[in-house]
Amino acid sequence: MSDTDIIKIINAEKAKKYLDENKRIDGRDFLEYRPLEIKRGVMKSADGSAWVKLGDTEIIAGVKFAVGTPYPDSPDEGSIVVNLEMSGIAASDINTGPPRIDAMEYGRIVDRVIRSSECINFKDLSIVSGEKSFVVFVDCYTMNADGNLIDAAQYAAMAALLDVCIPKLDENNNIVLKEYTDKKLNIDFNKIAVSFTFGKYKDKLFIDPSEVEELGSDSRFTLGVCKNDVVAYHKGGGKGTFKIEEINKIMDIAATKYLEIKNKICDEQ
Amino acid sequence: MAQTKRPDGRALDELRPITIKLGVNKNADGSCFLEWGKNTVIATVNGPKPIFPKHLADSTKAVIDYKYRMASFSVTERKSPVPGKRDKEISLVSGQALESAVMVEQFPNTVIDVNVLILSADAGTRVAALTAASLAAADAGLPMRGLISAVAAGRADGALVLDLDKNDEDTEDAVDMACAFLMPQKELALLQMDGFVDKKDCSKILETALKGAELVYEIQKKALVEKYPMEGDIQ
Question: How much is the pTM?
Answer without folding.
Answer: 0.92
